[in-house]
Amino acid sequence: MEEVKLLGFWPSPFSHRVIWSLKLKGIKYEYIEEDVSNKSQLLLQSNPVHKKVPVLFHNGNSIAESTVILEFIEETWPENPLLPRDAYQRALARFWIKFGEDEGLIIHKFFVAIGGEREKAAKEILEVLKILEQQGLKENKFFGGNTIGLVDISYGWLAHWFLVTEEIVGVKVIEPSKLPLLHAWVKNFKDIPVIKDNLPDYEKLVVHMKSYYYKLLFEVVDL
Amino acid sequence: MEEVKLLGFWPSPFSHRVIWSLKLKGIKYEYIEEDVSNKSQLLLQSNPVHKKVPVLFHNGNSIAESTVILEFIEETWPENPLLPRDAYQRALARFWIKFGEDEGLIIHKFFVAIGGEREKAAKEILEVLKILEQQGLKENKFFGGNTIGLVDISYGWLAHWFLVTEEIVGVKVIEPSKLPLLHAWVKNFKDIPVIKDNLPDYEKLVVHMKSYYYKLLFEVVDL
């Protein structure tokens, strides 16, 4: 019998990448919630390098780093493919996943920016998201076409967590007037049943991210 | 007839990742040297997002980002595999490639550090390289075993460019007393004929990186 377990944390967009991929492929798995304030032996032993969720367990092996897990899932269960079959199209998908991993770091800047810095950070994010919209998404329903794939999954944080960030920070970036195609994508993405049914509760996420936000702000003030 | 072209820059470790992979697989290609001080239309059109080398051209398609190109090469020409066949072993390889991409950023800090900051940065790098050595490389000749693969190729900068950095900065990190296994790996890696025959000239690289170094230092002082 195949063993599939996922060690995750409920507000983590990275854990949700793995949840969505497994569910979209119809893979049964056991979910284990990690206590990130008191890290488990399971986490420390299975991801000694980063000590972070998500970690996927498959038949005794453990795999860390969400983008690495996504590729593993795709290779291990090729049914309901989440990457295109064509090597060039796959390369494009990986290019945009990497773009999100590299540029996503600016979100943190937006989150902790105060005063005038906030507008500046929002402008920077808008520029990055415009590139993503115009060169990555284009007029498509999903990244790469008409069906959901790993690029969409990797940008899941944008469709849900980023809206919470906008609410907390008090600046709206993904608006129809600024990013019409990306705004439509957020709806398309969240309309997929597996996504809709597997998102952390919005209000609960606001409370969680607010406490994180004030902690970060406090650290900034403390410097 | 298959078209394979590479747009690169002679001192770029990222361009060399692609060169090594193509040569290890015996793929014939045309090399085009980019003038990075006056970027070509070919570069601007083929990598409009980052405007950086390397860019691989294959039958009219262009692919950017060296780690994405490496995966494309592996999928397009599976002969002489550079990733393990087993999905879990592939995941491990991708984990260590990602580790280098993420943690490699600290090299820049080491490069521009002056005075006491330099020793501090060298200490940080040593900690990162110890993790790489003890958990990634272990007692193996190459990452993942007895033959060269994509992990080794992705760490090529460590085997050649980093030694130049050490010389310029004046601090040695990869020493037998500090990192015996990684020190041995540098030799194993550079002993592979395809690698040895396709490295930028050391003295030329010192001159190039020194001019870059002084430019960076000047910018730091200028702040």
Structure description:
2 copies of one chain form a homodimer. By secondary structure, chain A is of the alpha+beta class. Chain A folds into 2 domains: 4-76, Glutaredoxin (3-Layer(aba) Sandwich), CATH 3.40.30; 87-219, Glutathione S-transferase Yfyf (Class Pi), Chain A, domain 2 (Up-down Bundle). The first copy, chain A, has 12 helices and 4 strands. Chain A has helices at 13-24, 41-46, 66-76, 87-103, 105-112, 116-137, 150-154, 156-159, 161-169, 180-191, 193-196, 202-222; strands at 4-8, 30-33, 55-58, 61-64. In chain A, strands 2-1-3-4 form a 4-stranded mixed β-sheet, covered by helices on one side. In chain A, strand 1, helix 1 and strand 2 (30-33) form a beta-alpha-beta unit. In chain A, helix 9 packs across helix 12. The first copy, chain A, is globular, with a radius of gyration of 18 Å. The mean pLDDT of chain A is 94. The A-B interface holds A 48-49, 58, 61, 63-65, 67-69, 71-72, 75-76, 87-88, 90-92, 94-95, 98-99, 131, 135 and B 48-49, 58, 61, 63-65, 67-69, 71-72, 75-76, 87-88, 90-92, 94-95, 98-99, 131, 135.
